[in-house]
Amino acid sequence: MIVDNTSDTRGQLTLHLKPMRAFAVSLTRNLAEADDLVQDTIVKAWTNADRFTPGTNLQAWLFTILRNNYYSSLRKHRREVADPDGIHAQSLFVKPDHDGKLAYADFQRAFDQLSDEHREVLTLVGASGFTCEEAAETMGVPVGTVKSRTSRARKRLSELMGLAEGKAVLDGVDRVNDGVMSRSGKQAA
Amino acid sequence: MKIKPKSPVSRQIDENLKRIYEETLNEDLPDRFADLLKKLGDKSATGSAATGSEEDQK
């Protein structure tokens, strides 16, 4: 019984690699570091597969291993901020004249400057599609903490971009978004 | 349970967060992960002695 569950869990790892990697990139903001993190997570998940409770959320379980790994290696090594360019170099080949390009570059820069905890909560709740409950389970904190941390993170992010959430400072950006169709032929670079 | 109606800034944040996440999500995985899983699979198939505990089936 346990054996079957263990091999089931192991067999399903492969389905979660992409989300794990996306989460790892959000945490580390560095592709090489993210891949190492995913690699370590795979090994840990494989080794401890018997500890996963079948029927519960495997992705949340994997994300928990991943983020715990990340924070404990942070504590050990203290982050070498050596190569923030790794990720930017990666993102640069995003279609240059995609809508909201300028806003996106600014956004990424602001996102990079957030604390790890803020990037984490925004990624889990805002991007990965986790509910607050799932995020709480993954992060090992109460749901209320997830909610308050999320709103603080969003506020901080807005500040970093020079925006105040709720204000209409973004009108330029909105116009770009809405107007893309009509002027998509315009050369950006 | 949505907290409050979304302002334009708020919506932009959501979209950009998703975009950052999905950029990686949509990328092809490097081979190293498949290789690793294969290696782990081979190891637990042959080297049952290594961990032992979960291999006492049949």
> Given the structure, what is the number of helices of chain B?
3
Overall outline of chain A: globular
Query: What percentage of residues of chain B falls in helices of 4 or more residues?
Result: 55-70%
N→C terminal distance of chain A: 60 Å
Mean pLDDT of chain A: 80
Q: Quick one: how many beta strands of chain B?
A: 0
Shape of chain B: rod-shaped
How many strand segments of chain A?
0
Strand percentage of chain A lies at under 5%
Mean pLDDT of chain B: 78
Specify Rg of chain A, calculated over alpha carbons.
19 Å
Low-confidence stretches of chain B: 49-58
List its salient traits.
heterodimer, A: 189 residues, mainly alpha, B: 58 residues, rod-shaped
Q: Any overview of this molecule?
A:
In chain A, helix 3 (31-47) packs across helix 4, helix 4 crosses helix 8 (132-139) and helix 7 (116-127) crosses helix 9 (143-160). The longest helix of chain A is centred in the middle third of the chain and has 20 residues, at 58-77. With 189 residues, chain A is mostly helical. Chain A has ten helices and no strands. Chain A starts with a helix and ends in a 10-residue tail after the last helix. The radius of gyration of chain A is 19 Å and the shape is globular. With 58 residues, chain B is an all-alpha fold. Chain B has three helices and no strands. Chain B has helices at residues 8-25, 31-46, 48-51. The interface between A and B is large, with 52 and 38 residues.
